[in-house]
Amino acid sequence: MFHANAWGLPYVCWSVGADIVMPQQYLQAAPLAEIIEATDQPSPGCRAHGARRCAPQPRRRRPQLAEVDDLRRLGGAAVVMAGYDATFGVPVVQAWGMTETSPMAAQARAPRWVDDPADQMVYRQRTGRVMQGVEIRICNDAGEEQPWDGESTGEIEGAGPVDHRLYYLDPSEEKFHDGWLRTGDVGSIDPDGFIQISGSSERRHPSRAASGSARSTSRTP
Hints:
Blueprint: H1 4-16, H2 29-38, E1 45-46, H3 48-54, H4 56-60, H5 62-65, E2 71-73, H6 79-88, E3 92-97, E4 104-108, H7 117-124, E5 128-130, E6 135-139, E7 154-159, E8 176-177, E9 180-189, E10 194-200, H8 206-211
Parallel strand pairs: 1-2, 2-3
Antiparallel strand pairs: 3-4, 4-5, 5-10, 6-7, 7-9, 8-9, 9-10
């Protein structure tokens, strides 16, 4: 459990009656591989560096990795996805969000009408598709909302019943725009609702600045 994983996955598991397996302090590749081997049909959740750390270990234990349904990864380089797909046959699902979106705002799964694996990977490597319960828009430097055409870019803003509306003891207004949360991420949205982050605004969001996470096409603080 790390950051947004800890606030999202436990509730999902509870809602569907799934078991939760905690590795505690045993986060090295060897014990994680043993946990995967001993767990019935697991869906591990980790950040990109955790997936990279475990990658060499399963190569020596490839039969056991067949028990993994998928690897839920929040943020990081897309090369991890292609590597796990090609080497182990384990699909990696990435998502995007932040503390203030409680915590997930988009998840990268290919639409059902896309059958070709190569085309599916194009969608899976994007930042993610806007999830239910979250409103997302992009606004340019003038504060004008931009169309979802996959080309227009602007700062990503979020709203909805699970998004933060204010900060405790922080009355400053630059973190919000007409009631919408300014995420500090810059990108585009295509007509199907898929976000593609391309950078960050000059006004980087405080929760992202504190996280120390590297910027990439998709990541969670």
